[in-house]
Amino acid sequence: MPIFDDKSMEFISRSPEQTRRLGVRVGALLQTGDVLCLSGELGSGKTTLVQGIAAGWGSSDPANSPTFVLVNVYRHPQGKRLYHLDAYRLSSAAEAEELDVPAMLESGPLVVEWAERIQAALPPANLWVTLRWVDDEQRDMVFKANGARYLQLLTELRRQIYGVP
Question: What is the DSSP letter of 109?
């Protein structure tokens, strides 16, 4: 089981379906105010992971990349919202601040693709996921917990996947 330390974990996905299933597990753990930061090149699996996250969180809305609209909002049957921000077209954290991230976090979790581009506008406590393309079917994902809430989330995710605390 590839675990670097208690604050990080590596997962190698062998298919888009496996990436979505992992996302379903992550999405089921998210709460209002949670921040999930995704970092990785084009084709590394960020949007595929978000598709699973949205489904696991409880949305039946189809998840797709919000590259041109910047933020997609996925609805939950109980009226909650999941925010999916794509920072690829943002040139600075100041541009992200205009989107009012704090207001998003008051009403739901936030998943940010290309998070490294606006890191200064995001809360320092988050779950950071670095995705890397390995080959046509495989993606390498490294999860890093920043803060107590995210250490708890990562510990539960590790327990679900590997059966260990």
Answer: -
Strand 139-146 with 8-13, pairing: antiparallel
Classify residue 115 by its DSSP letter.
G
Phi, then psi, of 16 in degrees rounded to 5: -60, -35
Give the residue numbers spanning the domain of 45.
Answer: 8-162
Amino acid, single-letter form, for residue 159:
R
Specify the pairing of strand 81-86 against strand 71-75.
antiparallel
Domain count along the chain: 1
- Return d(Cα 21, Cα 119) in angstroms, integer: 27
Mutual angle of helices 16-29 and 148-162, in 10-degree steps: 130
**For position 112, what pLDDT does the model report?**
94
Q: Would you state the structure tokens that stand for residue 69, as one six-digit string?
A: 């609209």
By residue count, the chain amounts to 165
Domain with residue 101: its CATH number is 3.40.50.300
**Which is it for the CA torsion 141, 151, 17, 14, positive or negative?**
positive
Q: pLDDT exceeding 70 applies to what percent of the chain?
A: 95
Q: Phi and psi of 111, rounded to 5°? A: -115, 125
What is the value of pTM for the model shown?
0.90
